[in-house]
Design goal:
heterodimer; A: ABC transporter involved in vitamin B12 uptake, BtuC; two-stranded antiparallel ribbon; globular; disordered N terminus; B: alpha/beta; Rossmann fold; 4-stranded antiparallel beta sheet; 10 helices; 29% helix
């Protein structure tokens, strides 16, 4: 154009919101990561044996290579931390992060603020898939790879595709239909799961404890498996943040802005379902994390998916670590299923969202 | 059905428009939904600088045509070319660098500001992992200045009026920097003050000199005042095509819309103003 000089808008509008993408708030992610670490340190210090946070940190640091610290703590502490608490807290964090990110992705994908892996039936479908593996006597590991996430993925995928197809064919607001279809599919999957359990071996404890959800039996290997399955989903989310932003428009409009809509949707559904399946394959069904975390982020910092997805992961991780802490400490020596704790926070929040759907709509 | 008369306005058009600088070329386009043929052999081409109004009765497929011409719908037959390349052989990103669309009443996500929306227009120019850079911000800003929406940059989309929203959507399409811009009924939800404002804005766009702007319109009179060319669609074909005063005649309108009208001359623009004939009874309005 002519020699006219355009002022750089960011300087002209100093309060341009976060979502611009030009001024990515890295520091918020860094601060949130720090907060998650602090929450995790606090969580591992709590339990039947209280361990001061200072010692938790020292034991952690002593594990680092090239660091030698005089061990002035009981060796049982090290065992408790390393064998029990850290695996549990880390798995809770990973699962919380996965559920929250996938929840955010589903919300963006379906343009529905109430979409949540749990609500749209994905988690229940994944649960059914995992139950089939658990009761059918199929070996849990094939060539060293856990079958559970794969079965959960298949179940979750069937559920999400069913819910989506029903919502798409129904006339009127696909928004409500999707949730209703998800609820129906979740009930159906739950019923089949119960039926399978009753008809199977009398010892249904592993299935039952899995279905209730929780991290009692968490092991380091679980975290490793979940992370391995999460990786492709995480990479897709990293690449598709801006495209999710564009997908908030009508599909034609998004296509006219250069998005290959069908491909993007397929990749995102597969990724979010894979992430959900990976998360629930070891932890069981935990509701509301995928709903609460993304909305907290959205309400606080806006809806740019490039920020929303990673921030949801951090908020979800912190939230589930805390929920699990409450679950294992509030009724000692017994434990609550962690899903009860998340439901206590999540259900009222869900009602609040329903009430304010107009203002919170994506 | 081929009830095309010899008054096909290609004749008018070809005398006046040399074939130089042709940007947009649509040949023999056909498309149908569930067995009903919407477009059958639609031909149209336009050169840089043209501002074309696309008119025709309800259900003639104006929206379908825009979807086809932007490549989001695959035609059953025919070709859509921009600057010599076929849209159906391109990837979505490549298409979106050639043709931008302002849909009728699009969904705008809440929680986004006007600035965010305009910046989304840069999407086709960015790679998968690429972020909007300073250059994109400048282009988006320029688009907002061109549509007088720069003052609205920080406003939430939900808080904008109909006219403001439409201008922001046009800015978004401008930020795509395409040689062809298609608009579907850009004035249909606006009042009498904002309708001409949008048309004026489109007429005066600086980028218009080297691009083609096509608006699908209901309002024949409004289209006549601003567009320098009118295309009348009838039965899926380009029925008449040319300058407003040549195309918007009582005879053609009667033929296409099946309604008797009178053509007046606008005192300011000298362009046709279409009003219902007095004996037209209940069908006095040219809409519907």
């Amino acid at each position: 154009m002519s020699g006219r000089k355009h002022e750089f808008p960011a300087s002209r509008y100093p309060s341009i919101p976060v979502s611009v993408g030009l001024r990515y708030p890295w520091w918020r992610l860094v601060a949130a990561s720090g907060a998650v670490v602090v929450v995790a340190l606090f969580a591992v210090s709590q339990g039947s044996v209280g361990i001061p946070i200072g010692d938790v940190v020292k034991i952690l640091v002593s594990r680092l290579p090239f660091v030698s610290i005089e061990a002035d703590w009981p060796s049982t502490w090290e065992t408790i931390l390393w064998q029990l608490r850290w695996p549990r807290v880390v798995l809770a964090g990973i699962v919380g992060g996965a559920l929250a990110t996938c929840g955010a992705a589903y919300q963006g994908l379906f343009k529905n603020p109430l979409a949540d892996p749990y609500l749209i039936g994905v988690a229940s479908g994944a649960g059914l898939g995992a139950t089939i593996v658990l009761v059918s006597g199929v070996p849990l590991f094939v060539v060293g790879i856990s079958v559970l996430p794969a079965a959960a993925f298949a179940g979750g995928m069937v559920a999400v595709v069913m819910a989506y197809i029903i919502a798409r064919q129904a006339s009127g607001t696909a928004l409500t239909t999707l949730i209703l279809a998800g609820v129906a599919i979740a009930s159906l999957a739950g019923a089949v799961t119960s039926l399978l359990m009753i008809r199977s071996d009398p010892d249904i404890r592993p299935v039952l404890s899995w279905l209730l959800g929780g991290f009692i039996s968490a092991r380091w290997s679980h975290s490793a498996f979940v992370l391995a399955y999460l990786l492709p989903a995480a990479l897709t989310f990293a690449a598709y943040g801006r495209i999710l932003n564009v997908l908030q428009l009508d599909e034609d409009h998004a296509a006219q802005l250069g998005v290959s809509v069908e491909r993007a949707k397929l990749l995102l559904v597969v990724s979010a379902t894979l992430g959900t399946a990976a998360a629930v394959s070891f932890s069981g069904l935990i509701g509301f994390v995928g709903l609460v975390a993304p909305h907290v982020v959205r309400l606080a910092w806006g809806g740019d998916y490039r920020f929303l997805l990673p921030m949801s992961a951090l908020v979800g991780a912190g939230f589930l670590i805390l929920a699990d802490l409450v679950a294992r400490t509030i009724v000692t020596p017994a434990e609550l299923p962690v899903g009860i704790v998340t439901a206590f926070c999540g259900a009222p929040f869900f009602l609040y969202l329903l009430r304010n759907r107009k203002t919170i709509a994506l | 059905m081929t009830s095309l008369t010899s008054r096909n306005a290609h004749d008018i058009e070809d005398q006046e428009r040399p074939n130089l600088g042709r940007v947009f070329d649509v040949q023999n386009l056909s498309f149908g939904y569930d067995g009903r043929q919407v477009l059958s052999g639609f031909d149209f081409s336009a050169s840089a600088g043209e501002f074309v109004g696309l008119v025709g009765p309800n259900g003639t497929g104006k929206t379908t045509l825009i979807r086809l011409m932007s490549g989001v719908l695959k035609q059953e037959g025919g070709v859509v070319e921009i600057l010599g390349s076929r849209l159906d052989r391109m990837r979505a990103t490549e298409r979106a660098r050639l043709v931008s669309v302002v849909p009728q009443n699009p969904r705008t996500p809440s929680g986004l500001t006007a600035w965010d929306l305009v910046l989304l227009g840069r999407n086709p120019h960015l790679g998968m992992l690429q972020w909007e850079g300073k250059n994109d911000a400048e282009i988006a800003h320029e688009a907002m200045v061109a549509t007088s929406t720069d003052e609205l940059a920080n406003r939430d989309l939900d808080s904008l009026s109909g006219g403001e929203r439409q201008r922001v959507l046009i800015a978004m399409a401008l930020a795509q920097q395409c040689p062809v811009m298609l608009l579907d009924e850009p004035t249909s939800n606006l009042d009498i003050a904002h309708q001409p404002a949008i048309m004026e804005l489109l007429t005066n766009l600086k980028s218009r000199e080297d691009s083609v702007v096509v608006v699908a319109m209901h309002d024949l009179t409004l289209a006549a005042q601003y567009c320098n060319r009118i295309v009348v669609i009838r039965e899926g074909r380009n029925f008449a095509d040319g300058r407003p005063q040549d195309v918007l005649t009582e005879e053609i309108i009667q033929n296409v819309y099946g309604v008797k009208v009178r053509i007046l001359t606008h005192p300011d623009t000298g362009m046709p103003v279409i009003v219902g004939a007095n004996n037209a009874g209940q069908s006095r309005r040219n809409e519907d």
